[in-house]
Amino acid sequence: MAPRVSLFVTCLVDQLFPRVGLAMAEVLERLGYQVEFPEAQTCCGQPAFNSGYRGEARAVGRHFLKAFRDAECIVCPSGSCASMVRHHYAEIFHKDPEALAEAGKVAPRVHEFSEFLVRVAGREEVGARFEGVVTYHDSCHALREMGLREEPRRLLRAVRGLELREMDIAEECCGFGGTFSVKFEDVSVAMLGTKIDAIRRTGAEAVVSADSSCLMQIRGGLERAGLPVRALHLAEVLAGV
Amino acid sequence: MSEAFHHRIQEALLDERLQAALYAATGRLMDKRRSGVTAQQLPDYQQLRTHAHRIKQHTLENLDYYLELVERRVAERGGRVVWCRDGSEAQSFISGLARDRGVRLAVKSKSMTSEEIGLNEALEHRGIEPVETDLGEFIIQLAGQKPYHIVAPAMHKTRQQVADLFERKLGVPREEEIEKQTMIARTVLRQKFLAAGMGISGANFVIAESGAVVVVENEGNARLATSSPPIHVAVAGIEKLLPRAADLAVFLQLLGRSATGQPLTSYTSFLSGPRRAGELDGPDEFYLVLLDNGRSRILADREKRQTLYCIRCGACLNICPVFRRIGGYSYPGAYSGPIGAILTPQTLGLNHEPELPFASSLCGACAEVCPVKIEIPQMLLALRGEVKKAEARERRWNPEKLGFRIWAWAMQRPRLYELAGLATSALLEVDLPGPLRAWGRGRELPAAPARSFRQLWRARPRSG
Prior knowledge:
heterodimer, A: Rossmann fold, Rossmann fold, 2 domains, 4-stranded parallel beta sheet, 13 helices, B: alpha/beta, globular
C-alpha cells in the first residue's frame, strides 16, 4: 500500500490560496503518496499566539491536536505554521500536561513541504518543469525556526528549464509578520519596498517562496508597483510539468 | 503614548535621507560582522556563542555570590563598590562625590548605562559639566541629542551635519573631512581631559575574581578619561559581572566581531582601582557604581532572565529590518532595536509603551546574530502575552480581544470556520475599514478565490 500523508493546508491556503494546497497534493501523489485531508482542520493558532492571546491560541491548538490525532505524517505548505506546532506548542501548553503530551506526539510528525520532500521522502527531482528565471525568498520561519535554507533551493534547481537567480537579500524579512502587517502597516510596507526592489534587480519573472503569507505580502507589493513578476509558492512550481 | 510612538515612526519613515543613510550604515556594520565571524575568521564561533550564553547563565544564577566577591576585591585594591537601587541613587552618589571634591568638570567615556539613568542631565543640574569624549557621543552631546544606536551613537548624522554642528557650536571653520573633524574634537577634548576633576566610564565587563573593570574602545578616550583625572567612577549594571578574567577569552572574541567585525577593539583596558604606591598613572580614588534599576526584577523572571545576558554589541540593531526603518529615536528608553524592545518594557514597565513588543515581524534575524544567544523573538512573544493579560486584568475595552475570542470560537468549529471563511472572502471584494484598509494602503489585497481548498478537494475526482 502507498504510504499515507495528511495535508495540513493552513487556514490561509484553504481560504485564499487553494491552488497551493492542490499543487502540494499533486506533487505528493506524483511521488506515490496516498494523500488525505483531515476535514476537521482549521488553523494552528499562530495568529492569536503572535498577538499575545495565549488562551485563544491554546483553544485553537487543542483543536488542531484533535484534528490530527490519527495522522501519521503531516505535510504543510508553510514553515511558519509547521514551526508553530513543532516549536511553540510546547510553550503554550506547558501548564496543560494532557495537551503537552499530545503535542509531543504530533509535533515530530509535522513537516514543512520542502523539508518533507528532501529530508523525509529523500527526493529533490520531482518531475517538474518550469521555463524561466526565478528568485527565491526565504520565509523567516522556514529559514530560522525550521532551518530550511538549502531544501527549497535544491528542489528548485532540480526543476527542468528553471534558472534560480538569487537576490542579494533573500534572507531579509518581507515585512509580513502576521498582525504586524496591519498594526505597523507603514513599517511593513517600507520593508516590503526593499524586498520588491531586490526582486526587481534580479530580472526574474517569478519570485518563489515556501510560505503563502509572505507571498501574499510580496504579491500585494508587486501588483501595487505594477511589476509583471509572479509570486508563486514552491508547490505551484513543483506541480508544473 | 502609543500615538507618540507611531508618530516617531512616521517621522523616520518619511525622512528619505535618513532612510537611505540608516539602511546603508547598518548594512555596513552587518557586512563587517559577517566577515568577522566566518568559519575562516572564527572557526569556533557557534561554540563560543553557546559558551558565552552558559557563562552568563551561570553568573546570573549565582549573582549574589559574585556581587559580594567583587565588592571585597574592589575594596582590597583600595576602591569602593557603591550599590545603587536606581538611577536617582546613582545620580546623587556621583554628583555628591563631585561636589565634595570640588569637581566642576567631568570627562566621560561612552556608557549606555549612564544614558539609562540620565546622568548628564543630573550632573548639569547640579552645576557639574559632563563632557562626552567618545567622538560619536561628543557629536550627540553638542547636538543636544541622545545616542541613536548602542554602538554608533551618531549613526544618523552625516559629515555635512557634523560640519555645521562644529562650526556653530565650537566656532571653528567649517570642515567636512572626517579626519579633520576628528582633529577638531581632539583639540577640544584634550583640554577637557587635563582639566577634569573626575572621569566617568561605563564597564563592558566587571571581573569578580579581581575586581577589574574592563572597557573596550577604539579611540583611547576611555583610557585617558579613567587615568588622567584624580577620581575614576565606573558605572555598571549588576549584570555586567563575569566570574574570571579567563572568561574574557570568550567574550572579547565575540564582542568586537559582533559590533564592528573587529577581532579585538583597538584598546582593551583593565581598570583595577586607584593608583598604587610606585605607579605612575591612575586616579587617586576609584568607585564602582553597581546599578540595579530593575535588573533584579528581570533576574527573578526565569523566562526572560536572559535579557540580562546582553553585552551591548548592537548586532541585533544592525540586522533588524524594523530598526533599519524606524531608527533609534522611535524607541522609548535609552536602548533601541530588538534588545531595547525586550529590555525597556521590563525596566520601565509594560505600560510605558505597550505597543513596543508588537513592533516586530518576528523574523528572528536578531537571535541569529546575537553573540550570547538571547532568544529575542521568544521574549517578545512572552511580553506580548503579558501586555494582553494586563489589558484583560484592567478590563480595558478592546475590539481586538473580542475579535480573537470569536475567531478562536469559530476555529474550533470546522463548519462555522468554513462559513466564516466565505464571509472573509466576500469582505475582500469590498472596501472595508480596519485591518483590510490598513493592508490596502500600500499593497493590493489578494483576490478571493471562488472556492476554498476544502470545497475544491471535495469536488476533486478520487484518484486511485
